[in-house]
């Protein structure tokens, strides 16, 4: 029944991660950037679950890890969006390239 | 007295430092400091000489440096030669110090002039007291420095600046030879001391080739200092300095240092036939060569300068012919009569404010002291009987003849003829004939200038009698410790010498005194001679075209290498650093995405490195 091999999952995860990375590094809108980061986290989740099933030592650990990641990602999204809201109130913008006060 | 001979050079040294420190305030009174100090030097030198006359050589040395097992010593020696030179140098220096008080009167840098004179006198006296080559070399360079400073004394004149540099560089070329020779001797003998070197040359520690090589190398140094061909070109240019300097440094003392060096190292030269021949040939050639140039020059000091070169050639010829005594004897008489001639020339220049002999004339009546004094100097240098130059020149001719240098003997005779001719040409043009200058108020020099000249004039006559075939060869006996070989010279040599000098004087009188013979009698018949002589055989031009241009070309090449290769590399490095810095600073733009990208690229690089090295970097 398992005709799909590990590498297929890994390639999928890779593609997802790259799309996420590309988006995170290039998009101006901070909301899109946050979504892209979620995409990268999910690519990692796919990896964890795939290794839990098809890895050298299959077990439950990977799946537990994935659940933790989902929890942390939810918290991160909440904190990120809250920070963005606060930023928007102060700077009247959500464009990431205009937020460059780290420079000085 | 000989134990304290080392104090002799310290008087002028004190004068140098003292005048440097307070000369500005003393103005013209600084002359008295200089005169007093050189007088003390002279008196002490005299005492040393009298002490040495009856005694034997005194030598004192102290260890100066210890390098491994080699001990370098410094000290002083009072040999017959040294004692003699001390008196000659300090006497001429003393007289020039007095003369300068009148000549330099009104000069803004009066005290500086006296300070430099003090430095030079110190160095020259130190040079003649040195008991080893290294110490000689140190003072040798110091006299060069004194000469440089004094030639360039009028440094606001371009010619003086150029002449000072030329003198320094030309003598330096010779000094390189001296230095190499000195190091070679040290390498072979293991000591700089004259005594050790002579012992080594005698007992064969030094091979014959090495003796010849080192002797010739050291002779190159003497060639540079004494203005011998081919390094003579700096000496006529050195006349840009004040005239008392020309008298002291470029006629009487420093230029004689080369002759002194060869004389001091005479046992080394005697050990090599080739070296002796080289010295004799260079000397003889220079004597004739410079005398012919002197025939046509029109600058009073330049004529005297070429005659100095020529007379130094005579001294070298004497030394090369094996006659140590004749060389030193001529050095002494020349120091007196040439200093006299220069001081008299200075007095003339002082009066008419020009150095061009075509613009003088008729000064005999206007300058009742300078004229006869100049005449005495002229008679002495021309070798007229009873004057000092006659005896010393005769001694040299005898030496050349008895040592079998027949060709050199005749060269010396011809030179004597030319010398008499150009010196009397100078005399008739300056003092005889009609007035050709525009100076209205020509007056005799003050007593402070004429007195030293009178003393020198007395010496220019009397100095000859310390060594004559008629009354006794005192100088020769004393210098050689009684071993002076009384050569039985054929009597006709003296007759020939007298005849040629009288002939030269007669010819000069016909051309420039009586004017019954046209001045262009020869030059109109033999074309190109005049321009060849006038341009000093184009030696300066030759050096410019060869060495000068070659040096310029090499410098140009090196400057391009410096500009494009060396500087190019430096600029490349700077540009690399600059580019990477600006790249880095452009990345630091506060954009979080840029930071993220850099982080990611860095991580990726680390992963790639890990993948290739397996983590074992």
Automatic annotation (TrEMBL), chain A:
Its main location: membrane. It is an enzyme of class 7 (translocase). It comes from the Bacteria. Keywords: Cell membrane, Membrane, NAD, Quinone, Translocase, Transmembrane, Transmembrane helix, Transport. Its EC number is 7.1.1.-. The keyword Membrane applies. It is found in: Cell membrane; Membrane. GO terms for molecular function: NADH dehydrogenase (quinone) (non-electrogenic) activity; quinone binding. It catalyses: a quinone + NADH + 5 H(+)(in) = a quinol + NAD(+) + 4 H(+)(out). One of its GO terms (cellular component) is plasma membrane. The keyword Membrane applies. NDH-1 shuttles electrons from NADH, via FMN and iron-sulfur (Fe-S) centers, to quinones in the respiratory chain. The immediate electron acceptor for the enzyme in this species is believed to be a menaquinone. Couples the redox reaction to proton translocation (for every two electrons transferred, four hydrogen ions are translocated across the cytoplasmic membrane), and thus conserves the redox energy in a proton gradient. Belongs to the complex I subunit 4L family. This is NADH-quinone oxidoreductase subunit K. It comes from Parageobacillus caldoxylosilyticus NBRC 107762. The gene is nuoK.
UniProtKB/TrEMBL annotation, chain B:
The chain crosses the membrane at residues 6-23, 30-50, 70-99, 111-131, 137-156, 176-194, 206-224, 245-269, 275-296, 303-329, 335-352, 373-392, 407-431, 451-472, 492-512, 592-612. It comes from the Bacteria. It is found in: Cell membrane; Membrane. GO terms for cellular component: plasma membrane. It is a multi-pass membrane protein. Residues 64-114 form the NADH-Ubiquinone oxidoreductase (complex I) chain 5 N-terminal domain. Keywords: Membrane, Transmembrane, Transmembrane helix. GO terms for molecular function: NADH dehydrogenase (ubiquinone) activity; NADH dehydrogenase activity. It holds the Pfam family Proton_antipo_M. The keyword Secreted does not apply. The keyword Transmembrane helix applies. Gene3D superfamilies: 1.20.5.2700. GO terms for biological process: ATP synthesis coupled electron transport; electron transport coupled proton transport. Residues 130-419 form the NADH:quinone oxidoreductase/Mrp antiporter transmembrane domain. Belongs to the CPA3 antiporters (TC 2.A.63) subunit A family. This is NADH-quinone oxidoreductase subunit L.
């Amino acid at each position: 029944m398992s005709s799909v091999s590990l590498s297929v999952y890994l390639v999928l995860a890779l593609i997802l991660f790259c799309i996420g990375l590309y988006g995170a590094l290039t998009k101006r809108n901070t909301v899109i950037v946050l979504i892209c980061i979620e995409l990268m986290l999910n690519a990692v989740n796919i990896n964890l679950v795939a290794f839990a099933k098809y890895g050298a030592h299959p077990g439950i650990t990977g799946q537990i890890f994935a659940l933790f990641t989902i929890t942390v990602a939810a918290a991160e999204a909440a904190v990120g969006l809250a920070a963005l809201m606060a930023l928007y109130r102060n700077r009247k913008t959500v464009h990431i390239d205009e937020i460059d006060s780290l420079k000085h | 007295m000989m134990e304290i001979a080392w104090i002799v050079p310290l008087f002028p040294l004190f004068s140098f430092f003292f005048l440097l420190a307070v000369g500005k305030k003393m103005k013209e009174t600084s002359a008295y400091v200089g005169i007093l100090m050189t007088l003390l030097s002279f008196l002490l030198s005299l005492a040393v000489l009298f002490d040495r006359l009856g005694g034997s050589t005194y030598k004192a040395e102290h260890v100066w440096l210890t390098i491994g097992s080699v001990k370098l010593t410094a000290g002083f020696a009072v040999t017959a030669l040294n004692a003699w030179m001390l008196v000659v140098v300090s006497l001429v220096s003393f007289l020039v110090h007095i003369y300068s008080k009148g000549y330099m009167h009104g000069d803004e840098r009066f005290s500086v002039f006296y300070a430099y004179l003090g430095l030079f006198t110190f160095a020259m006296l130190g040079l003649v007291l040195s008991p080893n080559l290294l110490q000689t070399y140190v003072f040798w360079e110091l006299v060069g420095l004194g000469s440089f400073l004094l030639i360039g004394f009028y440094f606001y004149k371009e010619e003086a600046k150029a002449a000072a540099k030329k003198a320094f560089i030309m003598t330096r070329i010779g000094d390189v030879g001296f230095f190499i020779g000195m190091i070679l001797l040290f390498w072979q003998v293991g000591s700089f001391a004259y005594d050790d070197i002579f012992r080594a040359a005698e007992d064969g520690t030094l091979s014959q080739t090495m003796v010849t090589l080192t002797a010739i190398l050291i002779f190159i140094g003497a060639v540079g200092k004494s203005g011998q061909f081919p390094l003579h070109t700096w000496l006529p240019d050195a006349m840009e300095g004040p005239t008392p300097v020309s008298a002291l440094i470029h006629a009487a003392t420093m230029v004689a240092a080369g002759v002194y060096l060869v004389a001091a190292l005479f046992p080394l030269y005697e050990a090599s036939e080739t070296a002796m021949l080289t010295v004799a040939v260079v000397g003889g050639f220079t004597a004739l060569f410079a005398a012919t140039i002197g025939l046509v020059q029109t600058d009073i000091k330049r004529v005297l300068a070429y005659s100095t070169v020529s007379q130094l050639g005579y001294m070298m010829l004497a030394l090369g012919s094996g006659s140590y005594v004749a060389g030193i004897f001529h050095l002494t008489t020349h120091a007196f009569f040439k200093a006299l001639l220069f001081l008299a020339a200075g007095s003339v220049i002082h009066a008419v404010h020009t150095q061009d002999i075509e613009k003088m004339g008729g000064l005999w009546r206007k300058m009742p002291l300078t004229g006869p004094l100049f005449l005495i100097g002229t008679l002495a240098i021309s070798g007229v009987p009873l004057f000092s130059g006659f005896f010393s020149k005769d001694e040299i001719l005898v030496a050349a003849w008895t040592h079998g240098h027949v060709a050199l003997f005749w060269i010396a005779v011809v030179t004597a003829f030319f010398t008499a001719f150009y010196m009397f040409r100078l005399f008739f043009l300056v003092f005889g004939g009609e007035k050709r200058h525009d100076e209205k108020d020509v007056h005799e020099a003050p007593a402070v200038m004429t007195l030293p000249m009178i003393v020198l004039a007395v010496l220019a006559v009397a100095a000859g009698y310390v060594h004559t075939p008629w009354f006794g060869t005192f100088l020769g006996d004393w210098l050689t410790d009684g071993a002076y070989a009384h050569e039985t010279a054929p009597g006709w040599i003296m007759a020939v010498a007298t005849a040629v000098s009288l002939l030269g004087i007669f010819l000069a009188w016909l051309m420039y005194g009586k004017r019954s013979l046209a001045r262009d009698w020869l030059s109109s018949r033999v074309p190109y001679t005049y321009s060849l002589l006038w341009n000093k055989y184009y030696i300066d031009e030759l050096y410019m075209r060869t060495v000068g241009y070659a040096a310029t070309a090499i410098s140009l090449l090196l400057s391009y290498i410096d500009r494009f290769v060396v500087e190019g590399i430096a600029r490349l490095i700077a540009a690399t650093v600059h580019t990477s810095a600006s790249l880095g600073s452009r990345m630091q733009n506060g954009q979080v995405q840029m930071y993220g990208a850099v982080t990611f690229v860095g991580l990726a690089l680390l992963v790639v490195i890990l993948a290739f090295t397996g983590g074992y970097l």
